[in-house]
């Protein structure tokens, strides 16, 4: 009986192996999809994952579950995705943080090559925000204030893109600061809104509601050009942070073992969903721009981001957690 079962399994495997890419793509997915968000609920990645889960499920004919798997600045969730063998698990993350992970973590639980890109989804610039009690309204005043006493800056975690963004800003301006890391941007924002920390650099999608509600004030925008939603707020580049641009680049990655045909089908479905007029309008109203790419272009983006932030880390040296 055991030999017969082995023969049946082997025959089924051979049959699947013989399927062309088109046939495999038509068959996939065969069960619910799981979107792993490597950050806490309420952050930019989580917001977008929950926005797209229903339409993505409708497009592919299966249910889609969002699971927050936090820790180590996204590495825990990324590792869970890289190690998944069910061919129905994907990662929705800030791709900059995904690229940074291997640069700052000695014992990575997975290899970067264990993941491959599917598509980018959206770009949202960072907003440098302060608690209303901070006696500064622009970058010059902020730097001067910090010279008298270093400012506490919250972030989504050590090595996150918004942490390294502050490092880059400080290198360019002389800002004196001390890093206060949290497990996700939502917690970092909440701490600054409560007045426990003074500054936070975080994605506009999650940050703008707190600005609109008067709980935070904007010092600058991390885009090269001004945002229509905050037309009166100058960019950080305008305020002397030369050529500075950063933000949350949300995208999707899957285990490298996922067949190419399935990855391409997922990419096409995600692009249709995120480009839909109603989705584009919802994101624009929150300060995010739709940004899509092919699987190859997404993987190349990760490589470019890795090089960019490696340079910032090298220049910061021992000052990566603050410049007092």
The major beta sheet can be summarized as: 11 strands, mixed
Structural class: alpha/beta
Q: Which consecutive residue ranges, at least 5 long each, have pLDDT under 50?
A: 1-19
Series of secondary-structure elements, N-terminal to C-terminal:
HHEHEHEHEHEHEHEHEEHHEHE
Radius of gyration: 21 Å
Number of helices: 12
Strand content: 15-25%
- Please give the number of β-strands: 11
pLDDT averaged over residues:
91
End-to-end CA span: 72 Å
Shape: globular
Helix content: 40-55%
Polypeptide structure, described:
This protein is of the alpha/beta class. Helix content is 45%, strand content 20%. The chain contains twelve helices and eleven strands. It has helices at residues 2-17, 21-27, 44-60, 75-82, 95-104, 139-148, 161-173, 185-193, 204-212, 260-275, 277-286, 295-316, and strands at 33-37, 64-68, 89-94, 115-130, 151-155, 177-181, 199-203, 217-221, 247-255, 289-290, 322-323. Strands 1, 2, 3, 4, 5, 6, 7, 8, 9, 10 and 11 form an eleven-stranded mixed beta sheet that branches. Strand 1 (33-37), helix 3 and strand 2 (64-68) form a beta-alpha-beta unit. Helix 2 (21-27) crosses helix 10 (260-275) and helix 3 (44-60) crosses helix 10 (260-275). The protein is globular. The N and C termini lie far apart (72 Å).
């Amino acid at each position: 009986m055991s030999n017969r079962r082995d023969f049946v399994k082997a025959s089924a495997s051979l049959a699947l192996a013989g399927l062309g890419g088109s046939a495999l793509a038509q068959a996939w997915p065969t069960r619910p999809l799981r979107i792993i968000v490597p950050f806490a609920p309420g952050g930019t990645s989580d917001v977008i994952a929950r926005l797209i889960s229903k339409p993505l499920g409708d497009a592919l004919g299966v249910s889609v579950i969002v699971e927050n798997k936090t820790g180590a600045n996204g590495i825990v969730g990324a590792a869970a995705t890289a190690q998944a063998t069910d061919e129905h698990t994907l990662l929705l993350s800030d791709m900059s943080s995904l690229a940074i992970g291997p640069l700052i973590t000695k014992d990575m639980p997975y290899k970067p090559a264990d993941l491959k890109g599917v598509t980018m989804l959206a770009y949202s610039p960072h907003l440098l925000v302060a608690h209303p009690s901070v006696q500064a309204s622009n970058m010059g005043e902020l730097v001067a204030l910090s010279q008298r006493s270093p400012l506490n800056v919250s972030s989504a975690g050590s090595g996150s893109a918004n942490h390294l963004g502050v490092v880059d800003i400080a290198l360019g301006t002389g800002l004196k600061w001390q890093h206060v890391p949290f497990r996700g941007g939502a917690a970092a924002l909440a701490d600054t809104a409560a007045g426990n920390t003074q500054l936070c650099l975080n994605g506009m999608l999650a940050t703008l509601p707190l600005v609109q509600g008067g709980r935070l004030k904007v010092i600058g925008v991390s885009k090269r050009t001004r945002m229509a939603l905050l037309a009166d707020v100058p960019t950080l580049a305008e305020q002397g942070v030369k050529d500075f641009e950063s933000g949350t680049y949300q995208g999707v990655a899957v285990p490298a073992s996922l067949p190419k045909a399935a990855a391409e089908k997922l990419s096409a479905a995600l692009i249709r969903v995120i480009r839909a007029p109603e989705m584009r309008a919802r994101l624009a109203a929150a300060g995010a721009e739709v940004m899509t790419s092919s699987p190859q272009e997404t993987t190349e983006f990760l490589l470019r981001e890795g090089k960019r932030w490696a340079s910032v880390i090298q220049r910061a040296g021992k000052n990566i957690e603050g410049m007092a």
